[in-house]
Every structure is written in C-alpha cells, then in structure tokens.
Write a structure and sequence with these properties.
The complex is a heterotrimer of chains A (501), B (99) and C (629). Chain A has 20 helices and 2 strands. With 501 residues, chain A is mostly helical. In chain A, strands 1-2 form a two-stranded antiparallel ribbon. In chain A, a hairpin with a 4-residue loop joins strand 1 (59-67) and strand 2. Chain A is globular and about 70 Å long. Chain A starts with a helix and ends in an 11-residue tail after the last helix. Chain B is an all-alpha fold and 99 residues long. Chain B has 3 helices and no strands. The N and C termini of chain B lie far apart (54 Å). The relative contact order of chain B is 0.14. In chain C, helix 3 (87-110) packs antiparallel against helix 4 (117-136) and helix 5 (140-158) runs antiparallel to helix 6 (165-196). Chain C is globular and about 115 Å long. Among the domains of chain C are: 347-548, no CATH class; 560-628, no CATH class. Chain C starts with a strand and ends with a helix. Classes of the chains: A mainly alpha (501), B mainly alpha (99), C mainly alpha (629). Chains in contact: A-C, B-C. The interface between A and C is large, with 65 and 59 residues.
Chain lengths: 501, 99, 629
Amino acid sequence: MNILSFVTLFPLLGVVALAFMPKTNTHQIKIVALGISIITMLLSFVMALKYKSPASGFAYVTSHPWVSSFHINYALGIDGLALVLILLTTVLVPIVVLGGWNESEGGRWSVKTFYMLILVLETFMIGVFAATDVFLFYVIFEAMLVPVYFLIGGFGTGERAAAALKFLLYSLFGGLLMLAAVIGIYIISAEQAIGSFDVTALSHLTIDHATQNWLFLGFFIAFAIKAPLWPFHTWLPGAAKAATPGTSILLLGVLDKVGTYGMIRFCLTLFPDATKTFAPYIIVLSVISVIYGAFLAIGQKNLNSLIAFTSISHFGFITLGIFAYTSQGLTGATFYMVNHGFSTAALFLVGGWMISRRKSAAIEDFGGLQRITPVMAWLFFVSGLSALALPGLSSFVCEFLVLLGTFTRYPVAAIIGTLGIVLAALYILILVQRTLHGPLKSGNESMTDLNLREKIAIAPVIAALVILGFYPKPALHVINPSTTSVMAQMNVTDPHVLAGK
Amino acid sequence: MDISNYLYLSVILFTIGATGVLVRRNAIVIFMCIELMLNAANLALVTFSRVAGNLEGQVASFFTMVVAACEVVVGLAIIVTIYRSRRSASVDDASLLKN
Amino acid sequence: MRTSSLLVYLIALPLFSSALLLLLGRIADKWGHILATLITASTFVIGVYEFMKMHSQPSGSRAVTQKLFDWISVGTLKVDAALLLDQLSICFVLLITGVGTLIHIYSIAYMSHDKDRRRFFAFLNLFIAAMLLLVLGDSYLNLYVGWEGVGLASYLLIGFWNHNPTYAVASKKAFVANRVGDLGLSLAIMICFAQFGTVSFAGVKAGAHGASSAALAGIGAMLLLAACGKSAQFPLQSWLGDAMAGPTPVSALIHAATMVTAGVYLISRSNFIFDASSTARLLVVIVGAITLLFGAIIGTAKDDIKKALAASTMSQIGYMILATGLGPVGYAFAILHLLTHGFFKAGMFLGAGSVMHGMDDEVNMRKYGGLAKLMPITAVTFGLGYLAILGVPPFAGFYSKDKIIETAFNAGGIKGILLGGAALLGAAITAFYMTRLMVMTFIGAKRWKAGSHPHESPLLMTLPMILLAVGSVASGFLLSYGSALVHWLQPVVNSQSMEEGKPLMPALTVSLLALGVVVLGAFFAITKYRSVSDLAPEDVSIFTKAARKDLYQDLLNDKVFVEPGTLLTAGLVKTDDRVIDGFVRFVGNFLAATSDVLRKVQNGFVRSYALLMLAGLVITVIAVWVIGA
C-alpha cells in the first residue's frame, strides 16, 4: 500500500478502534481520536516532504480495479493542488478535535459517535482530493454528506435538524447534476475509445462544444453549490449557525474547498472550451459574491453567520482567480483555499470559545472583551486581520495574487473585486469594535481567558498564517507546477504585458 | 372458424369481472370476480391458440391457472385472517395502511 | 549596485522587539519601554552609519540594496523581499528613526502612569518597523506591506484607549479611510503589472516610457488616491482630526512627522510615473492646493489644541503634495518641507502633550492661557516651532515653504497664479491659526479649570522637545545650504533637470510677499484673540460654524457613503432572506404542497386503487392505439 492510500485510510483505523471502546469513557475516546488525527497529520507531513512535483500527471499513483465492467478504479494520486489541500485537512482535524474538546458532549448521540464521524469524514476529505478516478471522486463527494449531516443534525445547536436537511438537499441536488455529467462523459469516452473514468485519460477526449457546455454545467453547478457561489449560498449561513465550531471549520475550511478544487480539477481541464465560454458569466457571479457576501456580513447580527458570509465573499475571490485562468489567478486561488481554511478556522475557533463562554452568539451580547480576556481578544483580532487580508499574513498574498491575475484578463472585474478589501475592513473592524472594544458589557464579567489547551489548539493556525504570509514560497513552489499543467491542458497562456519592454 | 363470438364472450366475462371488482365490497366476491377476469383472458388465449394453430396460447392459459391457484391460496389466507381479526370481509374496512 | 547586509536589521530589530513585548506580556512591564527605546535608538545608529557610508560614495552610486529572499514567484510575477536604500529613503530613515527615538524617550515619561505602557511601546516599535519597510521596500508590493503595516499600527495606537467608544470609532474610521487609499495602491500595482509585467520600482521606471498616457494617468491617479488616504488629503482627509484620540506622542510621530507623509514619499518615489503624465500631475496639484486651504481653514476654528495642530498637519502636507505635482525640482522641495515639518510639527505636538500633561489632559485651548510663565521650556520650544511653521527667516519653514510657494508661482500661466495664490493664501491663514493657538495657550489671561496646577514637564519630556526645536531652527538652513538636498536627491528624482525658464517673480519678491501676508495674518490673530472667553461663542458667522464642523466633511461622508451603505446592507439582508432563500424555500414548499395534494389519492380503499389501475390501463391502450395508428 503506498503512503497516499495509507494516509487516506489511516483515520478509518481510528474509527475501528473507537468502535470497540466503551461509550462512557469519553476522555479516553477523545485522546484516541486526537492521537489518530495527529498521526495522520504526521504521515501526511512525511508524504509532503518526500513529494516531488511530477513532470506530468500525478505523484504517488495507485490504482486497483473496483467495478471492472465499467472501468471504475480505486485510483489515487496527487499533484500540488491536491497536496496542499490534503495537508490543510490533516492539520485542521487535530485542531478541531483539540479546540472543540467539549463540543461533542450534549449532542443527540454519544461522544464516541461524534469522533467516529469526524474520523470517517477525515478519510473522505483526504480521499476526495486524492481521487483521480471521476467516479470514485463522485462517490466520495456524495458520501461526505453523510457524516456532515449527522454532525450538524446531531451535535449542533438551535435549528440543527432543519439546517442539516437544507444542507443535505442542496448538496444532493448538485450531486445529481454531477452524476448525470459523470455518466455523460463516460459514455463519450466509451464512444471514442475504451470507456474510462480516469481524469487524465478523460482530459484527452475531444468533445464537441455543445456537449462540453452541458457537461461543464453539470459539474459546475454541483461545485458552485458546494463552494458556495452566489446565488447558491443560502444553505451556508444556516448550517454555520447551527453547527458546532469544529464542524463549521471542517465544513467551510475543507469541504467547501472540494467545490473550488473540483472546478480546477474537472471543469477547467476536462472542458476547456466550455470554461472559456462560461468564464465571463462566472466572473460576474464571483464579483457579486465578493461584494454581496461582504455587505451581508456587515449586516449580520449573529457571529457565526457573519463568519459564514465573510466566507462567501472569500469564495468569490477564489472563483474569480480560477476563472480568470491566469497563472497568478490559479495559483492565488489555490493558495487562497489553504489560507481561507486557516483563517476561517481561527475565526470559528475563537468565535466558538467566545460563544460557549457567553452562551450566546448574538454580536450585541459581547462588548469590551479586551479588558477581561486579552489573549482571546488578541487572537480574535489577529484572525480578523487575516480575514481582511492584512499584508504580512498569508491571506494577503493569495488575495493579491488573485486580483493581480484577474486584472490582466478581466480588469473591470478586478477593480470591482478590489472594493471587497474596503468592505472587508468594515465588516471585521465593526465586529472587532462591537465585541472587543468599548466598556465591558454586562453579562461578560465572568468570562475567562483561554486555557492552555485552547492556546495550543490555535497556535499552529496563527503560526501558519504568519509564516506563509512572510514566506509563502514552500506553498507556491508546490502549487505552481499544477497551475502550469492546468493551463497547458487548457491550452492558454497569460495575457501579454501591454507596454513593450 | 369465426372467432368473434368467442372473443365477445371473453370481453363480456372480463367486463363483468372488472365491474364486480370495482363495485363490490365483499372481499370474497371481488376475489371471484378476479377469477372471472383471469378466465376471460384464458378463453381469449385458447381462442387465439386455436386460430393460430399452435400450443403457445394454451400453455399460457395453464400458466394463468397456476398463478390463479397460487393467488387463491395466498388471497384466501389473507381474507380469512382479516375476517378473524375484524369480523368483516369488506375491503373498505381494511384501509389501515392509509395512515 | 552596492549591497549592505545591515538594512534588514532596520526592520527586524523593532519588529522583533515589538513581538517580544507583546508575547511576553506582563513579564516585560518593567523594562519593555527601555528595550523599545534602545532598539529604536539602535536603528537610528544604523541609519546614521549607512548615511555616512552613502555620503562617502560618488553621487551616482550611492544606492544600496539587500535581497532577503524570493517572496512571491508565480508565472511572470517575481517579487523579492528586497530592500533599497537610496538618497530618498535615507532621508526618511533618518527622520523616522531620529524623531522616533526622541518620541520614544518622551513617551517613557508621558505614558508612565498608564498601566499598558508596555503595549504602547510594542505598538510604537511595530510602527517603526512598518514605516521603515515602507520606505525601504524596493517594489510597490514591498512598500504595500509597510503601507498597510503603518495603517495597522496607527489603528492600534489611535485606539490605544479603545475602552472609550469614541476612540474605538476614531481608530476604525482611520483604518477604513486608509483602506480606501490602499485600494488605490492595489489598483496602481495591478495596472503596473498588467502594463510592465513587474512591480519593482526599477522595472516600472524602465518601462514607463513605453506605456500609453491613459495607463500612466491611471497609475498616477491611483497612486494619488493612495497618498490621499494615508496623508489625509482631500477627499479622504476626514480621519486625521479624529485620529487625535490617540496618545499625544502618537500624534507627534505618526500623525505629524512620519506616517502621514508617506503619501509624499509614494509620489516622489513614483516620480517616473508623474513626470510622464501631465494629467496625473494636474490631479496632484489640485488635491494639494485644495487640501492646504481646507486644512488651514479648519485650523482657524478649532479649540482643541491637538485638532488644530492636526488641521495644520493636513494643510502642510497639502503643501508637500502640491510641490510634488510641480515637476522634478518640486520633489526635492516637498522632501525638504517634509523634513523641516517633521521637526517643527513633532516638536509642537510634543509641546501640546507637555501642556496637556500639566493641565490634567485638558485639550480645550479656551481653558488655557498664560502658560508661558509656568512652562517656559515648553513655551520656548513651541514658539520656535511656531516661527518655523510661519516661515519666518531664518527658521526652517522659511527655506522649505517659500520654495514651494515660489515654485508654484513659477508653474506658469493661470495655473501658476492660481497655485501660487492658494499657497500664499494658505501661508496667511497658517499664520492666523498658529498665532491664535500660541496666544490662546501661552499668553493672555488664565482661564484654567478649578484645581489645575500647570507645571513644567520632566526632563525626559523636555529634552526631546529641545532637540526638535533645534531642528526647527536649523534644519532648513542646513538642508538648503548650497541646495544640498536638491543635489542629494538629484539621482533619484532628477531634481535639477528643470530648465531655468524666466521665473514669474524673483525669489526675493516671493519671500517678501510671503512674509508680508504672514505678518498680516499673525497681526490679525493677535488683535482678535488677545482676550477670549473660556466658552466658545455661539453667535459666530456661518464660515466659523462650517470650519468648526470640519467644513461638513463628516456630514458629507455620512450622507454619501454611510447612510446609503447602511440602507443597502439592510436591504440586501432582507433580499437574501426573502428573495434568494425565499426562492429556495418556495421550491421546497411547492414540492411539499404538490405531494400533499397527490397524497389524497392514496385513500386506502382497494377498490379505488383498482379503478385507477383500470383507468391507467385504458389510457395506455388508447395511447398505444393512437400512436400505432
């Protein structure tokens, strides 16, 4: 078994171990879950250190027949794009476990169930990025919904059942369209050669323009719902409001990235002509997302839904970069996925601690936290700075790359998108002012500052944001070859410099 | 051979059977009406078999009889069970699955 | 080009010290301020050392660089984390570290009663690091990091006492206004990259000739927008007055001497853009002229000593911006005025802080009066700064401001007369409001609140004031002796390239004219404010009311941006819930309603099912029959 398969399947080992443990021993269950997720993380680090960008295609390739009559394989392999997202996943899971140590309690089901769901979800999340077989990707894409559905519906707060159902139905609708497109492309491949679900083989097909458009839309709408892109976003705020902070981190930090990842991996490379046809419209949707999400974030009264709307704005930037299909745009978008994962994780972690201490998620209930919980307030502030893409933090690098890359192809979209940075300053600073500054609001007096466990949980996230902000080279170095290969498959180049040298 | 009389009879029997299924409430009567419809179909099958000069229609009618026999076994068992528990053989009373 | 491995320490040392003080927390309370001050002093030493080394080189090869690492490298975009110290940046390095050190020393005493003094010094060091990065970055993107970094430091320091909601709002306002400017810088960088494929100063300079005039004007306008945000120029000026919420040393360092002048640096640094685009230059002089009058007019009506000084800063930076739009020699005069202004305005702010220190943090000048006797050192140092800003020979401002007025007149034609006239008018108003400030604070009757015991500040505070006062006296003469600064900056901004046309007025005439209006303004202020009441009079002219309200700048912003924005936000929140999510819910409800209707067919009666089956069969037969026929 190669290391990629091993990393992918390792969390399942934890699931088996947890299954044999008694329900009542919650502390031990948490320790085991944390241990398994940390080992998975270390394994993925080993994999990353030994990773060398392949000249073409994927590294750590493995393939076993699964349904041979339809040429479906259990086929895994990663390139830079997949690698950084897998690392994001494996780093975030232990942080979620550690940061949300107590959020598994008081749910509809046992603590054991919670961690089994988390670990199953981790396998799915790694697998979805590693899959190089379109059918395998589709199966995992849909299977991921199950643990998330139960995590929101069983362990959330408020209208958790309704939020979980809405999330599930939205995703299933997208998944259905994608299934049709998956079958469609298989039929085309069977007509042209031997039928195949291999993503590299499929990218060599010649598909006529009209068919490309339909297949593209099938994939794209599924991914746009997942991402979420305006106007397919309305499931997200409800889900973020109801889910536990840990679930929200995995949902917004990793799961939603499957959408933007899929856009690059499938929409761009399999249907380059359709991409060029639809890109201007998607750019418009992205710009609307950026501005719309920011305005909505300003208008939110609930901390969790505010963070959700900032994410909608940020996902607008990511799709903007993707569909500008320039090297800066694509690399920036990919890097953005990673940084958004960290920066949302930081916001949800600290926000979650604030909410659990105050027993309320309403922004107006907070005030003057800097006076009594300085460490928590500072961390919240830094997370906020990362969301507004302050230079020196990694989110700046990617946001700027996206805007720069977009400007060379779609200047107007980039100019409007840049307005997003002013709006970002507004929604973050208004939030910071209302929660942290001013006199201490009543009801906050008994707040306690972060304990050691919480500090340890958030430290790696902040460190990642700062280090990648000052020295993004390791990430960019891995992402760049993937971007080059995507652009080569699309047969496009960067726009020329306007003023001759 | 003129087959139309046979077919007329078959149609009349089938219609009587179908009407009986639709209008009667007693499960036993409905059951007998279903038998009537099946046998009307059998009659048509045998007629066609005779006209075509092969045995396929007759074979099919045997199959129908077998199926009808099975149906009688299962159906009567159900009806008897329902009658035992509800003291009625009316099909309108047995609408428990509705809710 | 020469390299130097010392440059990185200019930024790394204060950054490290800042991080240390913040992370160590209360442990560092005892010695945090001393460490921060020593670190800033050491950066000054490095700056002086680099200056000496630079000075010993021939004029053409004075610039030094240091490449730290590949920062961003994607496709054709290659940005190094690299530093560039040339004749222009060394001016700023010396100003930032020199004035910065003095203000650190001053703050040790000024903030001694604040329990968060360590945090204050951490922020100050963060500011020094960011500001040095701003002036040392060798590309627009590196500059941008420092640019936003100083914005952050400014936000943190304005909101240093953010438990007061007004101060918290002021800090937010400053950051958002700055972000609007940053938007301009972002767009300028994007246009540069699209046009030239690079964002380094050298690369853009090399390509500037090949660009279309529209592109150059676009870059210039966007850079100007950036400068407006950071330097509180019209139309983004409104944050500076509120920024006085920060502790006074902050106002002296950030909001007078260094950060707010970053816009001038940006335009001077981008001289190759502005030299190539007359449209951009025109925009620059318009903004500069409007702001210098705008600030001066606001200054005449302010009773808050810090806000009066802030309005003056805005106005003086207006002069600098005006100068940068006047062509190559203008850059040198802008920098000259920037340096002299750095001395006298920082000195005056520290003086104001000293007054506040003695008057229990009272900022209303109507509650001052007659302080000269009790605070002699403050009064004298402040007075020297006052003479400098008025442009009285031989004080510093005389050399810098008169040069700007003169260059403005020499711009030629109607434009020259308008700009020169504005600058001259500004000088008169400056004399008026500064004299008003002097008279109300140091001379006249005592209008103190009961229980005030004004006293002179300790040595740690007066020493920086004295040193800055020396600068206010001598810096102008030293820097312009034999056109020293103009020659010094020549390789960077090409300051001697302007052909000597026939000037509109000889220098002497301009100086006499300027001196004349200054005396007039000062005289007018003395007669008007010799005796003032301790309450601001209400029955004032409409102009005074407008000036007190900052010429309705906040009202305008509220009406044009804030209120429509709030409405839009509220509207979008409703739209999202009712229209977009409403549609999704409608689909769900529609399906539920439809199945509710269809459910009724399942009535549980076997016979009705049988009827349905029969009907279905009949329909199927008919359909087959129709299609078959």
